[in-house]
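the two lines:
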Amino acid sequence: MASVSIIPSGDYKTSYGSDTTIFPTKTSRNFAILGVVLLLACPAFMDRYWLSLLIQIGYLGIAALGLNILVGFTGQISIGHSAFFGFGAFASAWLSNSLGVPVALAIPLAGVVTTLVGLLFGMPAARLKGLYLAIATLAAQYILQDFFARADWFTGGTAGTIAEPLTIFGFAFDTDERFFYVALVALVVMYILATNLMRTRDGRALVAVRDHYLSAEIMGINLTKYRTMSFGISAFYAGIGGALYAHYLQFVSVEGFTILFSIQFLGMIIIGGLGSIMGTLMGTAFMVFLPEAMQALTKLVSGTALDTALNLKDNIAFLREMSIGLVIILFLVFEPDGLAHRWKQIKAYWKLYPFSH
Amino acid sequence: MTLLFQLLVNGLIVGALYGVVAMSFVLIYKASRIVNFAQGEFLLIGAWTCWWLLTHWQLPFWIGFPITLAFMLAFGVILQIVVLRPMIGEPIISVIMVTIGLSIVFQAAMKWMFGVFAKPFPQIFASPTVNLFGLEVQTVYVMSLLISILIMAGFGWFFKYSRVGLAMRATAFDQQVAQSLGISVRHMFAMSWAISAMVSAVAGVTVGVVNGVSSALSFFGIKVFPAVILGGLDSVIGAVVGGLIVGVLENLAHYLDSQWLNWGNMYEIAPFYVLIAILMIKPYGLFGTKDIERV
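prediction for all of em together
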């Protein structure tokens, strides 16, 4: 995986081939396969609450990965990711409702449509970078949000739109237990695609654009092409994630895709680690569990003096909002490389135990 | 026709306020190269503080307002020292995200403390409207225009003649050179945040008096982006001009919309279309310095 700022000691590579494998060691590959197998068994013993959280991690993780390809790997900032996520959700619902496209086909098609929209807004991205791009995507967020509220034919206006459940050969994935497998398969496929992208010439070009775009240009990398491309890829991932979200909840409302949601996506990749694919998943899980943790915390202190003084029960929404902002700030100040970096250090520590350092 | 004229006057008044907020945004950007996404929350905090002093403690305006300013000064300095100073030298995404994080935290905290509904300021002026050139204009609007002009003139004087202002400009121009001339760059950074927070609070109180205080105030911080991009990110004059243009423009868009187009909500969204257009054509704005990058 790219963007290893500091390679921990004990990490020896002797060929370029071994540097670009999907899994660094056989053990890690086996563990990943074991993890997926364990997840496959999850619906058998988990209740619906935990399953719904895991499904959330699934579709949000896919969208967050798209953002990480854009921000973490290409170094282009986007504050409008939730708008693309929303566009994917509406596009998929619209394709299956109005054009009669089967849902299984509508989800990837929604990804493609969102890619086109992403490329449209990515055109300024080809010319801009850093701060200017951040502001341009902020504008895109508001413009798309306004479009959702206004385009009745597409989004159903304020009433929202209903999305059909995913059905393959007459088998409807309409319960949490069933949809869990859809989310899992989509997640695994999308993550393997992204990992492979980063092993190709295009992936390395994206990283080069991030690290030093002038040098990259001198080496013959077409800046415009790769900046626009990474915007397109990110929109594609957001679209797929959004489409899964739509067909999981079977209802999409226009209010959900606010700037706060966009910031949550950014929070996921910052907490997980910019430019780390596994980190994206960790960050997403963190962000999904954070509000639940806040809820649990509130329950824990309920009835005490603290609870009555702050009136926690009625203000839980604000507490959640604040915790998102606080976690982002704390991570940036104390652990800017995210959970992925911390995880790597822990692994390195045990690898060399008891002779670390 | 009267409607158009009224809208233009409104646009100028609101635009002047945008200009003031944009100026305080540019001040931070110029001094410390930090893009402050929490600028709108400065307005919000200032307005709520003043409101709280005026209603909860029943202070008269002329005592409550200076206390608010003093509080915002301390707030700006502390914020800079505690949160922003560790971010010096970090990549731009981290800095942007920290200010975004701050904006979320402040917004949620303000909603928590003061509720989500707009609350009106106590009456400050005896007569609610005055007659200006045959137009009925609210007194607070006139006051806000006067305050805006006063702040702008103050900024002009500050940066042109005062010692601190000159030191700040030197810091903005080149930090190392400024440091070698005995200017404390740390003080300048803290000062720029303090001034920015104070000026934003003035704008926040003004808007609060007009519309009532609510979390909608923080949207000013977002509306500032079209203004500063139009004027050029590092130009104080550009910020004022950009603010005025955006203020007039959104009212014009509203007029066009209500008369002919009926698309709805153009008042809110038109500046963002303009923003994208400017970024495509002239990213460094009307008065901004064009970055020339050398390898």
